[in-house]
Amino acid sequence: MTKAVCITDEKLASLKGLIDPAENIAVISHMNPDGDAVGACAAMSSFLREYLGKKDVTVVLPDAPGEPLSFVTSLIPKLMVGRRDPEAAAKAIESAGAVFVVDLNRLERTSVLEQAVRLAAAPKVLIDHHPGPEEEPFSLVFSEVNVSSACELIYHILTRICGGAAKLPADCATALMCGMTTDTNNFANSVFPSTLRMASELLEAGVDRDAIVLNLFNSYRTNRIRLMGHMLDKCLRITPEGAAWMLLTKEIKQMFDFHDGESEGFVNIPLASKEIRLSILLTEEDDRIRVSVRSKKGTSAREIAGRFFNGGGHENASGGRLMIPADIPGVSAVEAYVENAIKQCLG
Ligand SMILES: [Mn+2]
Asked: Does the N-terminal or the C-terminal CB of the chain have fewer CB atoms within 10 Å?
């Protein structure tokens, strides 16, 4: 039994009241979707279709999920990608009878979908685990930071509705386990007592965790292992303050025939060192440098992401970006910028 405070009987009643009359439902998550985002969308889609009965559910994501998430993505029968087909994506959102937004705290995280979500007349529900959610655009908000993942929060909500893990549709149960497993980095961080209860109940309900781990963590292309070796050998910088940072440039991406999603997990590796308390992975893209930050307890990833990288997130797991040329002129300026940010925050 969960004690997540945000799930009250009243809210569950409003949720059901809101879903009942809706025939078409849109489920939306954030740009550069990770396992938790895709898992949350797949789980909601499955539950709304198979448990709550014959809803026409479209999952709409700003960007396509990377290949390494294909196992989770394959659980979504109807997926639209905003960057690929902006008009169809906007139409699916605007014509929906209810809109679910999962795994994000600010609508700007939906990037190319933001305007359509704001304009949609249908009631909107937010289900998220990041601090300080934007509540104003939503009719109903489920927000809880003391859970591992959006998938865990969704698990607690859905099992309250259906009466337990055994009643969840199989794809829904699998997707929830996938999202929780990726957001906890396979039970390495953000694990609460309720997280382990969820895992245990899902296993009892028949979810194949071995298959999930194989598909999520041990099914990469060999290129990715070689790229990881190159990054750790040639690109890892360690500062006197106990921070590590790496820059994945377009040039290196080309050298290793990089595919989206293949650098997943790289940012965590330097934290294996006793002397490292903060790790930053910077990835060069066309008009920006994507930034991912992780820290050990006692050091704030969120602070440096907020102060220097236009971002935010969790205390020990945050993200952000540097726009080119608004924030920095180009990759050659990254070193000085990052080293200064580290000095300001950890010095
Ligand atoms: Mn998440």
From this structure: N
CA of 101 to the centre of ligand 1 (A): 12
pLDDT tens for each residue of 46-69: 999 999 878 999 999 999 999 999
In degrees to the nearest 10, what's the CA dihedral of 219, 220, 222, 225? Answer: -120
Nearest CA to 24 among 114, 121, 169? Answer: 121
> Could you tell me the distance, in angstroms and rounded to a whole number, from the CA of residue 240 to the centre of ligand 1?
31
Q: Which of 167, 182, 217 is the last residue of a domain?
A: 217
Question: 126 alpha carbon to ligand 1 midpoint, in Å?
Answer: 13
Ligand 1 centroid, distance to 234 Cα (angstroms): 30
Among 217, 246, 281, the domain boundary falls at 217
Choose among 297, 304, 259: nearest CA to 281.
304
Contact 152, 9 (CB under 8 A): no
Query: Is pLDDT at 295 greater than 80 in this prediction?
Result: yes
CA distance 177 to 198: 8
What is the 103 CA–ligand 1 centroid distance (Å)? 5
Quick one: average pLDDT of 285-297?
A: 97
- b/e per residue 79-94 (b: at least 16 CB within 10 A): bbbbeeeeeebbbbbe
CA of 333 to the centre of ligand 1 (A): 30
Expressed as residue numbers, the domain containing 119 is 9-217
